[in-house]
Amino acid sequence: VEKVCANFLWSASEKGTRYHWIGWSQLCFPVEEGGVGLRRLSDVYAAFSCKLWWQFRTGASLWASFMRAKYCRELPLCQVELSRHASGTWRRMLNISRQAELSVVWRIQGGSCHFWYDNWLGTSALFLKAMVVPTLSFNDFIENGRWSSNLISRALSPDLFSSVLLHPIPCGAQADEPIWRLTMSGEFSVA
After folding, report:
1. Calpha distance 167→164 (Å, rounded)
2. Could you tell me which of 144, 147, 54, 143 has the C-alpha nearest to residue 101?
3. 126 burial via Cβ count (<10 Å: 0-12, 13-18, 19+)
4. Is the pLDDT of residue 9 over 80?
5. 32-68: per-residue pLDDT in tens?
6. Which helix (H) or strand (E) holds 149?
């Protein structure tokens, strides 16, 4: 498709052929960097794939619920594998999921996000740094309204232990809030 766009810009006219003064990839650079500010279609595709993932991850819509029920079946999202019967939309979403998850951090409020598989520390998900104990969740690491230092020290390394203790303790019934780190507002945007 980008070739069609380039041919449109550089194709022949009634006055003769046009010259390729600049490559298509350079046209896609920002104006400040010597380009024209056009977007590469692969970048637009990736941005809208991230948007699908964000809506799936953060949404309570019927579509998001259906996708979770059909493809996740109570598994943490990072453990869901691509099946050969998956839809094109699910394939697209799963292909971008790792990249998108790196841009999401969870603000802990009630402890509804996954202790091991969601990035609530702000550095990365715990499963990437520690051995997962699937039977333990946020509630297990809290004792009398405080972090259970004893259990955390047994489950996590000393540096992770310190990071956890610096975070507020989840309490209340309010759902944890996903934040898109690539925008100032914390909301996802393809702009």
Report:
1. 5
2. 54
3. buried
4. no
5. 988 888 888 888 999 999 999 999 998 889 999 999 9
6. helix 149-155
